[in-house]
Design brief:
Layout (H helix, E strand, L loop, with lengths): L6 E2 L12 E2 L15 E3 L5 E5 L4 E5 L5 E5 L11 E6 L5 E5 L4 E4 L5
Antiparallel strand pairs: 1-2, 3-4, 4-5, 5-6, 7-8, 8-9
């Protein structure tokens, strides 16, 4: 995850970089401690936090954007999502420094 470009870069097994996947505008504006955090689910979908626009993105293994979310099923609106993990149930759990807690985002289509 490159917060300066901003883009995701995928490397192939032999080493060369594949084409970067751009992040939607404003997602990764540079700033102290505002780096994107990443997690993979069991299907190798990549999830990335976007601290500066309070979203979580989901990409398939080829880099295609599948969805994004900024509000939990309980209507909690993210402020500064940082850490992220995917539960065995498929739910996305995000630590949000702005909210000072962990938010269950449910699933992202």
């Amino acid at each position: 995850a490159d917060s300066v470009s901003p883009a995701l870069h995928k490397f192939t097994a032999p080493g060369p970089i594949a084409a970067p996947e751009p992040i939607p505008s404003g997602g990764w504006n540079p700033g102290s401690y505002l780096e994107p955090f990443l997690a993979l689910d069991a299907q190798c979908n990549l999830y990335a936090t976007a601290p500066t626009n309070a979203q979580v993105y989901k990409f398939d293994p080829t880099g295609k954007l599948l969805g994004q979310k900024g509000t939990s099923p309980k209507n909690i609106i993210l402020k500064t999502p940082t850490g992220i993990t995917i539960g065995s149930d498929g739910n996305v759990y995000v630590s949000d420094t702005g909210l000072q807690g962990v938010v269950n985002m449910g699933t992202i289509p």
